[in-house]
Each structure stands twice: as C-alpha cells, then as structure tokens.
Write a structure and sequence with these properties.
The complex is a heterodimer of chains A (about 120) and B (about 575). Chain A is an alpha+beta fold. Chain A has a single domain, classed as Glutaredoxin. Chain A is built from five helices and four strands; from the N terminus they run ααβαβββαα. Chain A is globular and about 30 Å long. The relative contact order of chain A is 0.19. Chain B is of the alpha/beta class and about 575 residues long. Chain B is about 40% helix and about 25% strand. Chain B contains 16 helices and 25 strands. In chain B, the strands form five sheets. A nine-stranded mixed sheet of chain B has the order 5-4-7-8-3-9-10-11-12, with helices on both faces. In chain B, strand 18, helix 14 and strand 19 form a beta-alpha-beta unit. The radius of gyration of chain B is 48 Å and the shape is rod-shaped. At the A-B interface, helix 3, strand 4 and helix 4 of A face strand 6 and helix 6 of B. Strand 4 of chain A pairs parallel with strand 6 of chain B.
Chain lengths: ~120, ~575
Amino acid sequence: MKKDSPRRKAAPKATAKRTTKSPEVPDDAWNLRLYVAGQTPKSLAAFSNLKRLCEEHLAGRYHIEVIDLLKHPELAQNDQIVALPTLVRKLPEPIKRIVGDLSKTERVIVGMDIAKLDAI
Amino acid sequence: MPRAVRSRLPVLQKAPTGISGFDDITGGGVPRGRPTLVCGSAGCGKSLFALEFLIRGATQFGENGVVMTFEETAEDIRKNVASLGFDVDQLIADKKLVIDFVKVDRNEIEENGEYDLEGLFIRLAHAIQTVGAKRVVLDTIETLFSGLSNQAILRSELRRLFGWLKEREMTTIITGERGDGQLTRQGLEEYVSDCVVLLDHRVVGQISTRRLRVVKYRGSTHGTNEYPFLIDEEGISVLPITSSGLDYEVSPERVTSGVEGVDQMLGGPGYYRGSTVLLTGTAGTGKSSMAAQLARSTCARGERCLYFSFEESPAQILRNMKSIGIDLAPFVRKNLLRFHTTRPTVHGLEMHLVRMHKLIAEFKPTVVMVDPISNMRAAGTLDESTNMLVRLVDFLRKSNILGFLISLSAQGKAIESTDEGLSSMVDTWLLLRDVESNGERNRLLYILKSRGMAHSNQVREFLITPGGIRLVDAYLGEAGVLTGSARLAQEAREAREAQLAAEEVERKRLALDHRRKSTEAQIEALRAAYHAELEEFERIAAGETERRQEAERIRQAMARSRRITGTPALNGRK
C-alpha cells in the first residue's frame, strides 16, 4: 500500500472531475451501503475497516451510507439483509454483498473488485 | 372432558392449528408461545402445514402471523395457498399476515470476518410488530446453512433466535428438511425441543399416502401413531384413528331394515339407529339387494341415504334393483338417495376416507352404505383397509349414522370371519350364504350377532322375488335344512297331509251326523209307539168308565121299578 494520501493517489488514475468533486460524489462513483444494528463492536469495526479501505483505494469516488436497522427496520427487507454488518455495493453493478466486520481487507478488495480497479 | 380441571393446573397452553385432526391428536394444537419443528422430506407438505397454521390462526383464532420464507417468494406462497382457497392478499391488506421472503444466495454474499444474524432478528421483529403477530413461521430456515458458511455463527444464532422467539411468546413453526439419520439436515431438533412433528410421504403399490407423526411433545400427551393425512382443496386433513375414543352417544331408536322378515328376526323394529351393520355373503347371495331395500325404506321415511358403490355404476344399480321391484330412481330425483361410485384404486384409502367424510358431512344422511368393503384392499394393504374402515365406522357412530357395510366373503373361506377383521367392530352382523342341494343353490340368511337386541337364532331362507326380498322359514328335515325345491316339496307334502286330515275330520263329522239322525229317528219311533199305547190305554179307560156309569144307571132304574110294587121294608121282611 502506498503511503500517499488517497485523494492524491486517485487523482492521476481517474478523471479530474472525481478528484475535485470529492464531497459530491459523481454518478459513476461507488455507492456503498453499510447496514448495522446500533453501535456494536462489529459494526464499528466494519465501518472503520470500510472507511480505511475506501480512502486507500477509492478516494473521492465513493459514497458510504450507513443504515442503522435499529432505527429503520423496514429497510432490511429491500436489500435482503440477514446477517449484520452487511456491506452492499449498490454501484457499480452488479450488486455485491459482504457480510462481516470486513477485517480481512485483502478479501474485501477481491470481493468488491477493487483490485481490478486498482490495476487499471 | 376434564378441561376445567386442567385449566387450573399450570399445564402447557396450546395454540390450535385449525388443521382438522391435528388438534385432536395433540390435544389442542402446538405449544403456545414455543417453537414447533415440522420436518419431512421434500414435497411432504410441511410448508403447507406451516402456512395453514398461520392462515387459520389469523382467520379463525384471531392470532396474526408472520411467515419468513427462505425458499419461496411471497408470490409463490400466494399462489400455493390460493389453490386451497386462502386469500393471502386480503389477509395482508387487513394487516393480519406478513410474508417476508429472505433470500440468501451464496453467490451474492461474501463473508468477511465476524457477523451475526441480527438482520434477521430485526426483520422478524419489525414484521411481528407490524401486525401484532402471535404466530411465526420460519419456512426452511436451514436454507441459511447453504447461504452462509460459518456454521458456528449460524448455530449459535439459531439457538439465540429460538430463544428470542420463546421470549416473545411467539407460537412458532419451523420447517426442516429431513436429513440422513436425523430428523433435519442441520439437526434443528437439537434446538427445538418442545414439539417435533414429522411428515412423511410414502408410495406403496403406486398409491401414495402422506403420514404425520408427533415425534415429541414436551409436557403433553399426544397420539404417537403415524396418522395418514391428505392435502386437498381445503388444506390438510389429518385422520386420527384413535382420537375419537369410544364415548359417543347411542340411540335407543330402531329403524327398519327394509325387509320385514329381517326385522322379525331382530326382534321386531329393526336395527338401532347409528349402529353398524355388516352383511357378509358369498357372491350372488343378494347383498346389494338387501342394501337397496334398506335404501328404499330409509328414503320412504324421508331420510337421506348415501350409497358408496365400488363395483357398480348408479345406473346399473338402479336397473338391477328395479328388476326385483325396488325402484330407487324417484328417491334419487328427490335428492334423498345419492350414489357415489368410484373404483377403489382411483386413489389411496385415505383419500377415499376423506371423501366419504366430506360427502357425509355435506349430504347429512342417516344411512350410509359401503358396497363392498372387501375390495378396498385393492387400494392399499389389508391392514390399511382395516384401519380405514375402523375409522369410518367410528366416524359413522359418532355422527349417529347407520352404517351398512357389505363384505364379499371369498368362497371356501371360513364364512364367519372377515378379512378386514371388522367382526368385533360391528353391532349387527348378518350372514348370507348359499346352500347347494338337489342340484340347486339356495340362499340362507342368519344373524351372527346383534348387540343389544333379542334376535332370532334361526336360519331363514332368503328369496329374491320380483316383489323384493322375502324371508321364509327354512324347513328342517332329516338331511338338514331344506331349501328351495326341497322346501317346496316339503311344503306340498305338508299341505297334502293337512288336506287329508281335514277330509278325515269331515268324514267323521258326516258319520256322526248320520248317527245323530238315526238316533233321532229311533227316538221318534219309540215315542210314536208310546203314544199309540197311551191312546189305547186312554180309550180302554174311557170305555170302562162308561160301562160303570151304565151299570149304575141300570141298577138305579131297577131299584126304582121295585119301589113301585112294594115297600122296601116289606121287601126286607120277606
């Protein structure tokens, strides 16, 4: 892993647009949804793991939406949530799901096809 | 029922499933507020069982439900139960039911690190809250094991889930696929320890039968048998054989058998209403005719009669019975008599039984005939047909319906036994047999038993005439019972003897008459002679008186003439 700031690292690879429009995520950005149930150690771990990973590999091109099912239980059905925490990659398609606290970073990269993106 | 006593004791509360028969076996349903495992192989009906429990809960018992399905989508379920007449959409619209389809696809899910099944809990809690559910169905939760790989997490989470449901007092049915050597593939029975129901679907001799068994029911007694059940357009029906017990009411009322002679043999009024009559006989002894006669007398009273025929079509029965003077067609038109004819092999015995149950419940007859029971075996084994018939008899008795069962006994077998082993079940057992003598076969009827009535011990000859069935006294001759032409000969001989005797009497009477007349003539002659003598005597006596008077007259005349010539004194002196 490079030590560079993720934002700078992403800049040369992707379009300028993406880098500059970091707070407002572009249309083809990664849309990630993390389902949790309250602030459990697992959900906190999952979030920090995800955040770190995205910053490393997808800086500026991602959007993480954390959904607390304790507050919005009705949302669980739509994304077929069974296990928690669950990470759902809504975009880019196809939809992918990873359950667990995302502690195995390498596997998240493979599972989410981040590696492919990195290789570009 | 000692229900009142029971309710005071802290016993297990039960939630009725509404599945006909099941609540009888379990004494009220599944344990309330606890999970029940329903397991079985594919296609055994476990999902339907669970859904019926849920839907009937919502429609009949005011307990709303949640079904969490892991295999079928909500749309599939809707279609599946629509064929059984349940309107799921309406229930959902009325907020009585929630269907939550949980899709767990291994291809779409990757596992990474620690997780739990809190999502499932949240969904379930949300669904339960939405409708205020009391009942939950988890339809094949084991699917989770194929979607998620971490067995340790799954097992601990399932354990937690069942505990969670118990805590919330949800009456839950969990379905599970039958596994090798254990009840479910993933050993769910380990977690659900309150009640386990096993469903089975077996095909024997190309006829399939579904069976249900309560493997375990903690804290409750339950029927332990394997009970056949079936799925038809009204859902699941379990057919308990022993649940009915023997505590039915009996009727002292008697109804005619339709044949005068048989009534006489039974001591007068006929069969008891609601009893079971078995008529056995060899081929062609007139069993169906007896049934037809009973049908006619039943319908003539304005009561209904249901005739299950497994051999003849209704048209055939009507035609044949008309030939012996029993016209049943008017009763069919008046809807007092209904025929139900099928081949025994059309479906399994259970299906036959349930169809019978249904038709009986629908038509409400007072007499039900089964003609014959002996070939029900074609649709199953002998044991099964016995079971089925016992259940039928139980049901008829409970419903106070006179059951008239016809059994064909095989030639050459002990005639006083039935293959079906029903002999101890029935109240009245009539036996028809034929006797061969003098080159002819004749029918005999006798009553082998008839509970609760003084019945004849005689063997009667049974005649099928163009005017129906007639019973005549059988003659006991030197060579045994005389029937047919031997009886006719005997009758003729007796008639002749009687005639001779009558002639003898007449002759004697005439002779006596003659005697009387001659005696009277003699008396007359004697009397005439006496009269003659009397007359003679009177004549003589009269003559004598006259003569005496004449003499007196002469004497006086003489005395007078002497006084003229002299005095009497002078006359004396001289």
